[in-house]
Design brief:
By secondary structure, this protein is α/β, with parallel strands linked by helices. The protein folds into two domains: 14-185 and 379-399, Rossmann fold (3-Layer(aba) Sandwich), CATH 3.40.50.2000; 198-377, Rossmann fold (3-Layer(aba) Sandwich). The chain is 44% helix and 15% strand. The chain is built from 15 helices and twelve strands. The strands form two sheets. Strands 2-1-3-4-5-6 form a six-stranded parallel β-sheet, with helices on one face. A six-stranded parallel β-sheet has the order 9-8-7-10-11-12, with helices on both faces. The structure holds uridine-5'-diphosphate (UDP).
Length: 403
């Protein structure tokens, strides 16, 4: 695990000094994060890096995880989809299951923090335990167009928190409590993002039998319709008429996701005739993702809907030119024609990819600008600073400056 000092060459001494200063002001306060899983998913990924760094800064921090059975997590997955605006059939029984498990967690979880920081809807009902301590609800989901019934159900809890935190203004809702807007981050020193050698990159390409004879275009994503892998193949086919290149579509195991397997099968079928398309079902291996991103000439993220889109930040951090849809958190990361190219269609994506392949100097400049944009806005150190300012603001009145 990276130590704080190792961030100095990346973000500068003053950023790390600021973190120490803010941490000092939190002396005597205990911050408690609570979510629903210790591993897997973006929230756990961020907490697994953030909690040790807060501790190293001297902030008394703990991380607890609620318990839940299969039925509970089926319900919360439905809630998740419904909050994203997907049609889901949600019954009274689902709400009852949610409350039954919540009651067990209300009994079982020791909410001892001075600041209790609840992540996402799964543990939201713990607010029943609120006393005179500060309670925050962190929503990682884009709830701009939620299923009304689920949102109303959650609102009864949300209203009792001191403040709520969203990733982007466009993800949030009007609320009767204070809101803070804090985007997520990537860790530049994690296996997924740290510098790796050309040998490591070469070894990963050899493992997956991807020759380095022509430019590689890559999308890293779960095989999910909303990530539009079939659209990426169509864009590549259009590019291929003019520019000789390879396409890599790489995503994690889809074993427990029947729709994922279906999408993967469709992508394979569509790619059958073309040996330059590499469809990879990756094990959870961050170094391999890192290597594939670094081996690419262009990274694509042609999502139809998106949360923040961490893959975009990961690619930009590697100074790669990125072509990505103008959805979710992507426009926060890509300023069109400055730190990447935004697209709205298959035609637009193929046009942008061709442009980047034909203008390496332009592509290089976009990538470099993208890396600086990520350095200034979306690294873990910025995220830590925002969170500590947020904790401090809880102890001040309404005169506080909103982040
Ligand atoms: N990712 C991964 N393995 C895969 C596909 C994706 O580890 O096979 C990672 C990816 O590098 C990124 C995260 O999972 O860190 C996906 O986050 P993003 O916000 O891009 O999309 P989500 O999957 O959360 O919709």
């Amino acid at each position: 695990m990276a130590k704080l000092e190792e961030y100095v060459p990346i973000v500068g001494q003053s950023v790390v000094d600021d973190l120490r200063l803010l941490a000092g002001k939190l002396h005597g306060k205990m911050v408690q994060h609570i979510n629903s899983t210790p591993v897997g998913g973006g929230v756990a990924e961020i907490l697994s890096r953030m909690v040790p760094l807060l501790k190293e800064l001297g902030v008394d921090t703990r991380w607890d995880v609620i318990k839940g059975g299969e039925q509970f997590f089926e319900v919360t997955k439905k809630f998740h989809n419904a909050l994203h605006g997907k049609a889901e059939e949600i019954t009274q029984r689902d709400f009852d299951i949610f409350m039954e498990t919540s009651r067990e967690n209300i009994k079982g979880v020791n909410t001892c923090g001075d600041v209790v920081f609840i992540h996402d809807p799964q543990p939201i009902a713990l607010i029943e335990k609120k006393s005179d301590k500060k309670w925050l609800w962190r929503c990682h989901i884009d709830v701009s167009a939620p299923d009304r019934r689920v949102w109303k159900f959650l609102m009864d809890f949300i209203m009792r928190y001191d403040s709520a935190v969203f990733s982007s203004p466009s993800f949030s809702q009007r609320l009767p409590i204070r809101q803070f807007l804090i985007p997520p981050s990537i860790d530049p020193l994690s296996d997924k993002n740290k510098d790796i050698s050309q040998e490591t990159i070469g070894a990963v390409l050899r493992k997956y039998r991807i020759p380095q004879d022509k430019p590689i275009i890559t999308q890293i994503s779960r095989f999910d319709r909303l990530k539009d892998p079939l659209g990426v193949i169509e864009a590549y086919v259009r590019v291929k008429k003019y520019n000789n290149c390879r396409l890599v579509l790489a995503g994690g195991s889809a074993d427990d996701d029947p729709e994922g397997l279906q999408v993967l099968a469709e992508a394979k079928e569509k790619a059958r005739q073309d040996k330059d398309i590499h469809i990879l079902l990756l094990p959870q291996n961050n170094i391999e993702i890192n290597a594939l991103q670094r081996a690419s000439s262009v990274i694509v993220q042609k999502s139809i809907r998106e949360g923040f889109g961490l893959t975009v930040a990961e690619a930009l951090w590697k100074a790669k030119p990125v072509v990505a849809s103008n959805v979710g958190g992507i426009p926060l990361q890509i300023k069109h024609k400055y730190s990447g190219l935004l697209c709205h269609s298959i035609e637009g994506a193929s046009f942008a990819i061709k442009q980047l392949l034909n203008s390496p100097e332009y592509a290089r400049r976009l990538g470099e600008n993208g890396r600086e944009h990520i350095r200034n806005n979306f690294l873990l150190t910025r995220h830590l600073r925002d969170y500590m300012l947020l904790f401090l603001s809880l102890y001040h009145g309404d005169d506080v400056v909103y982040l």
